[in-house]
Design goal:
- The protein is mainly α.
- It folds into two domains: 3-51, no CATH class; 65-186, no CATH class.
- The protein contains eight helices and two strands; from the N terminus they run αααααααββα.
- It has helices at residues 3-24, 29-35, 40-51, 65-68, 70-89, 94-112, 120-131, 171-186, and strands at 135-139, 146-150.
- A hairpin with a 6-residue loop joins strand 1 (135-139) and strand 2 (146-150).
- Helix 1 (3-24) packs across helix 3 (40-51).
- The termini are far apart.
- The protein binds zinc ion.
- Zinc ion is lined by residues 140, 142-143, 145, 159-160, 162-163.
Length: 188
């Protein structure tokens, strides 16, 4: 085998590996089509093999509003803070940082017995929104932690959802969220 063809084979194996990891974490076909350099037919076959079913049809959720609602915002801020640390501060390649951050998010949920709010496809959409400059991280003036917010919002008087929760959110839940966000941000 020439070195060129073995490089090509390695590239392809890496792409297959990436696809499998994403499928295992719950990625929709649209995510694979954007991020994995394999043709659609192969991705569909891989999906069926790994997930044991055909990929679901339908559009991806496309709304920035969802990420700004109370509970999703806390989960999104937690996830994005980890991603941001891996990708922008430690220089990890984008998809590698994404998978690592998403695994950490899931581990954290398992550890605290919390429900998964941010499915992988949502997490990916969130990263894309940041990349297209629709979101920024705003620092809460009260707790000093970072939260997902609309881009170009002056955050001089920003107060996060943990510090200013809606009345329907119970106290223990708030404490738990606060702890989650702190854990993610404290080791920066
Ligand atoms: Zn706060």
């Amino acid at each position: 085998m020439t070195s060129q063809s073995s490089t090509k084979l390695l590239d392809e194996l890496n792409q297959v590996q990436l696809a499998i990891e994403l499928i295992e974490l719950g990625a929709r076909l649209q995510v694979l089509e954007s991020e994995v350099a394999l043709n659609r037919g192969r991705l569909v076959r891989l999906y069926k093999e790994v997930a044991g079913k055909s990929p679901p049809k339908g559009m991806l959720p496309f709304s920035t509003d969802w990420f700004l609602t109370w509970m999703p915002n806390i989960h999104a801020s937690f996830f994005y803070t980890i991603y941001d640390r891996f990708h922008n501060q430690q220089g990890l390649e984008r998809m590698q940082a994404f998978i690592k951050a998403y695994r950490m998010y899931q581990e954290h949920l398992r550890g605290t017995g919390s429900e998964e709010v941010l499915a992988l496809t949502r997490a990916w959409t969130l990263v894309r929104f940041f990349e297209s400059d629709m979101f920024q991280l705003s620092t809460c003036t009260s707790c000093k932690l970072n939260f997902v917010n609309h881009a170009h919002t002056p955050d001089s008087d920003y107060v996060c959802g943990v510090c200013q929760p809606p009345s329907r959110a119970g106290k223990p839940l708030i404490k738990d969220c606060e702890k989650s966000v702190k854990e993610a941000q404290v080791s920066r």
